[in-house]
Amino acid sequence: MKVLVAVKRVADANVKVRPKADGSGADLNNVKMAINPFCEIAVEEAVRLKEAGTATEIIAVSVGEKSCQEQIRTALALGADRGIQVEAEGELQPLAIAKLLKAVVDKEQPDVIILGKQSIDNDNNQTGQMLAALANFSQGTFASELAFSDGKVNVTREIDGGLQTVSLNLPAIITTDLRLNEPRYASLPNIMKAKRKPLDVFTAEELGIDITSRLTLVKVEPPAERAAGIKVESVAELVDKLKNEAKVI
Ligand code: AMP
Question: I need a surface site. Which of 30, 117, 207, 217 has the fewest CB within 10 A?
Answer without folding.
Answer: 30
